[in-house]
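look at this one:
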Amino acid sequence: MAPRALLPAVVALVGAVAATGCHAVGGGMPDTGPVSAVPLVSPGFPPSPAQARAGLARLTVAWGQHWETYKREEFGKTWSDATDAPGGRNGCDTRDDVLRRDLTDMRQGDRNPCVVLSGVLHDPYTGKEHPYSYRRASQIQTDHVVALGAAWRGGAWAWTPQKRLEYANDLDVLLAVDKQANYEKSSKTADKWKPRKEYWCAYAERYTGIKTRYRLAVTPPEKAALQDMLATCPK
């Protein structure tokens, strides 16, 4: 039992922890601060159409390499908060961060604000609307816009394990999307799979921004497809 003189300090400390929404993550380690302290959207990302075109022009054009050595585990076995990627080290699971950013009409947990209890996804790939409810089967999945397999072929095969883990958990690389569309997209590049035409501009902006940030090569058909999609952006 704490000495009487220390009780006010103990109460104040407990109150401060409760106010920040801190909670334990992997191995009982506390998070690094309030959930809201880490932004879920990077300033200036995705790039504008002009920036995306300029970035695309600078990318190395080459055919994919080392496709036969790709394994999902090369990018980490599970979601990880232990990276310096956007959204990292905020005490929340990466998938929860994506849901908190991409869902509307959202209700979060009272004791654990990382957890999304319910919400609605307006799927960018198909235009469909999907309700979400915690612990219930959902039509929502988390997609790497430039798929892990595509990133591997574009240069990630030469990265360190930590950089691959960072890529896999970078919120700017991820979107909450329709499950069937995610299955159909799989690890296809932009020349082999495209979302609905109304989303071409935004998709190409994000896709090119990811390739530029991580200096991933593009194949000739992939570059041409991205140029075509960026051409649909408003002038």
Summary: DSSP finds eight helices and seven strands in the chain. Confidence is low (pLDDT under 50) at residues 1-34.
